[in-house]
Amino acid sequence: MTASAELLGRGTVGTTYKALLDSRLIVTVKRLDAIRLAGVGREKFERHMESVGALGHPNLVPLRAYFQAKEERLLIYDYLPNGSLSSLVHGTKSSRAKPLHWTSCLKIAEDVAQGLSYIHQAWQLVHGNLKSSNVLLGPDFEACIADYCPVALATIPPLTSNDGQEDADAIAYKAPEARHKSLSYQSVKADVYSFGILLLELLTGKQPSKLPVLPLDEMMEFVRKVREEGEKNGNWREDRDKFGMLTEVAVACSLASPEQRPTMWQVLKMLQEIKEAAVMEECDLVMDSTNSGSS
Fold it and tell me: Boundaries of each Protein kinase domain copy (predicted)?
């Protein structure tokens, strides 16, 4: 409580700080909004946080501790120094964004899918607030999901209300069936929708609110145009099939009907199949060049 703190950002359910403890350990502290959790009793909060604290996966930012007093509720996470996925994709005041290579898009997407699939399958929990600012980059630039599961406790007005609580990008991440309900409405299929939007954000470098809602063929054409505009080195021609496969996954995840969306486990399998196909293709190319050289 007495640690020096630096404001990192204000989110849907609270404010996040970087704090330096007496032990010289740097942590991330999320101060939850008392109004948002006004109806949550002490025991309910403790039960929920004990469940969330039990989660352990390489692609989740670890929750190390929680604290609650009369009007104060804090969550303490590991601090990851490499910033957020949002900063990587869209740039910051001090750094410009660059289009991500398809291998980077695939690696990040697989990391996030691993973390979400674990939350859904192993623990029957829901993230509820997936977005690029809630994906942080670890020491080896692995993608780690942050801010998972606290919105299950929050009471938040519908995203379409004019109360100024949410911006157009936050709304764009939300599944159609969730947009006219409070943010406490959650489902695994709504998480899948958010993942689909996140993947399109990775592929195009566009903010979610700037992404059109298109059928697969038109979305592939949209991604093609964006990539051609952003890549001056001509890599698009040799990589377009890979981008096409990733676009297929993104569109499947962001279908309007929740019943038609795949599960995160199925999404993870799709991404792993794309990676395996790319590895096989690379091996074939190496074999071909070796054979042609020897002949």
Answer: 2-274
Measured CA to CA in angstroms, residue 94 lies from 22, 100, 245 at distances of 30, 18, 33
Structure tokens at 12: 């849907």
Question: What pTM, to 2 d.p., does this model score?
Answer: 0.88
Task: Give Cα separations from 84 to 29, 77, 134, 138, 266 (angstroms).
Answer: 16, 14, 7, 9, 26
CB 234 within 8 A of CB 184: no
- Of 93-107, 169-183, 249-263, the range with the lowest mean pLDDT is 169-183
Token pair in block for residue 2: 């007495």
Which overall architecture, per CATH, does domain 82-281 show?
A: Orthogonal Bundle (1.10)
Decide: helix, strand or coil at residue 286: helix
Write the CB contacts of 151 (distance below 8 Å, at least 6 apart in sequence). 12, 13, 128, 129, 183, 184, 186
3-state secondary structure of 73: strand
Q: What is the pLDDT of residue 295?
A: 53
287 vs 295: CA distance, rounded Å? 12
Domain boundaries, the chain: 82-281
Sign of the torsion formed by the C-alpha atoms of 119, 181, 89 and 199: positive
Cβ–Cβ contacts within 10 Å for residue 260, how many? 9
- 54/111 Cα distance (integer angstroms): 19
